[in-house]
Amino acid sequence: MRRINPKSTPLMWVLIVLGTVALFGGVSLDIDGFFGGMLQGAGFAVAVLGAYFLGALHGANESIAAGEEPQVWLPSRDRDR
User: Fold this and answer.
1) Quick one: how far is CA 8 from the chain centroid?
2) How many CA atoms lie within 13 A of 32 on its CB side?
3) Are the C-beta atoms of residues 20 and 42 closer than 8 Å to each other?
4) How far is residue 61's CA from residue 43's CA, in Å, rounded to a whole number?
5) Domain boundaries, the chain
6) Residue 5: strand, helix, or coil
7) Which of these, 3, 28, 47, 50, could form a disulfide with 15 (CB 3.0-4.6 Å)?
8) Which DSSP category does 7 fall into?
9) Residue 21: partners with Cβ closer than 8 Å, 6 or more residues away
10) How many other C-beta atoms can be found within 10 angstroms of the C-beta atom of residue 24?
11) Does pTM surpass 0.85?
12) Over the stretch 48-77, which tens digit does the pLDDT of each residue have?
């Protein structure tokens, strides 16, 4: 299983928060025209990229893509129970 770099996780949350603030800032400041749309589009793109990379960091391991059954999520298979 992959190890998650703990220093990169807060960076992804910062990207998501900054993107969300930019998106809603462009809507609530009522900036008309090109610059308002650019702020909204950039905010949406940054938030989506942050969410994508956060999901990639914490996503499932490569064994699922190889068709193997992940052992981490299985219940206990003890014969004593």
Assistant:
1) 11
2) 0
3) no
4) 29
5) 8-65
6) coil
7) 50
8) T
9) 43
10) 13
11) no
12) 998 888 887 776 556 556 666 656 665 666
The CA angle 13-14-16, to the nearest 5 degrees, is 65
Q: Does pLDDT of 2 surpass 60?
A: no
Decide: 33 and 71 in contact? Cβ < 8 Å.
Answer: no
Average pLDDT over residues 5-16: 78
Cα gap 29→13, rounded to integer Å? 23
CB 50 within 8 A of CB 67: no
* Alpha helices (H) in 1-81, listed in sequence order: 8-28, 34-58, 62-65
**How many Cβ atoms from other residues are within 10 Å of residue 19's Cβ?**
20
**Would you mind telling me the total number of residues written for the chain in this entry?**
81
